[in-house]
Backbone:
């Protein structure tokens, strides 16, 4: 009985550490801006899908939920938040739909089976990340009004960077799968 308790405690500790490290990685990916055309890119969506592939549905969703809660409670984890963060006010602003879309994207990306076929992996990733933009544009349209050019404001400037990130991730998936298999997340 004692051995079972130790195993369960060990799994819980590992789960907590993985979730915290994943949310930290996501926060770092939000803060790094890479020069790109037409707008600088962050690596948030790349990391969201990477976490979906690496951690699976439950742990992936838990990780993104922790990240969102950190931001809602005022930690400066979101892109463009000041050092002191602004919590719920920032969360419910123009980017809320995109942030909620992270949950759907990680869920969808974690459901797919990935292999060495780069084109099929790329298509799965593009489909998964599309939910970030669908939810983002839905929220943005409700917030600023549907008479505004929502696609032009909320998706078009980011599409080239998204395609680049998804292509990069598609090429990395065979190596990611080897790492995942060797470390057995949980």
Residues:
């Amino acid at each position: 009985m004692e051995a079972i308790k130790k195993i369960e405690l060990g799994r819980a500790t590992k789960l907590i550490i993985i979730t915290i490290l994943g949310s930290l990685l996501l926060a770092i990916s939000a803060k790094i801006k890479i020069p790109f055309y037409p707008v600088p890119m962050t690596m948030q969506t790349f990391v969201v899908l990477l976490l979906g592939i690496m951690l699976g549905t439950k742990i992936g969703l838990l990780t993104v939920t922790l990240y969102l809660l950190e931001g809602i409670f005022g930690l400066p984890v979101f892109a463009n938040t000041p050092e002191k963060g602004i919590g719920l006010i920032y969360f419910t602003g123009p980017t809320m739909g995109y942030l909620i879309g992270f949950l759907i994207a990680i869920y969808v990306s974690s459901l797919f089976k990935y292999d060495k076929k780069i084109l099929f992996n790329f298509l799965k990733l593009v489909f998964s990340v599309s939910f970030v933009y669908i939810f983002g544009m839905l929220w943005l349209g409700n917030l600023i009004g549907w008479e505004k050019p929502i696609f032009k404001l909320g998706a078009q400037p980011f599409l080239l960077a998204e395609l680049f990130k998804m292509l990069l991730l598609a090429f990395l998936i065979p190596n990611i799968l080897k790492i995942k298999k060797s470390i057995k997340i949980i």
Remarks:
- Residues 101 and 132 are 4 Å apart (CA to CA).
